[in-house]
Write a structure and sequence with these properties.
This protein is of the alpha+beta class. It has one domain: 2-Layer Sandwich (Conserved Hypothetical Protein Mth637, Chain: A). 26% of the residues lie in helices and 36% in strands. The chain has 2 helices and 6 strands. Strands 1, 2, 3, 4, 5 and 6 form a 6-stranded mixed sheet that branches. A hairpin with a 5-residue loop joins strand 5 and strand 6. It is globular.
């Protein structure tokens, strides 16, 4: 199960990124992290940009409200979304991951 935490006016959760996948999408849950498949390579921040773009489209929030709080050079990342509620994010992530 994905662990989503509220801190102030933002929500944080963990993702595990799989770059150079066949397609963009959510492929499940790894531990307490959402597993994201991204078609772009992990070169020069392209995977980070694709991660933010994908989550923005999935959660229907502006890209400017999503930041990578930790792990910008790692496959394991902490995502921070400003102006979102835990319930809203949990519903979308649970639906996307099939839980």
């Amino acid at each position: 199960m994905i662990k989503v935490q509220q801190s102030g006016d933002s929500v944080t959760f963990a993702v595990r990124v799989h770059p150079r996948a066949r397609r963009d999408g959510v492929s499940g849950v790894v531990g307490e992290a959402l597993k994201l498949d991204l078609t772009v390579p992990a070169v020069e921040g392209k995977a980070n940009e694709a991660c933010i773009r994908f989550l923005s489209d999935l959660l229907k929030v502006p890209r400017s409200s999503i930041t990578i709080a930790a792990g910008s050079k790692s496959r394991n990342k902490i995502i921070r979304i400003s102006g979102a509620s835990v319930e809203q994010v949990m519903q979308v992530l649970a639906r996307a991951s099939g839980q």
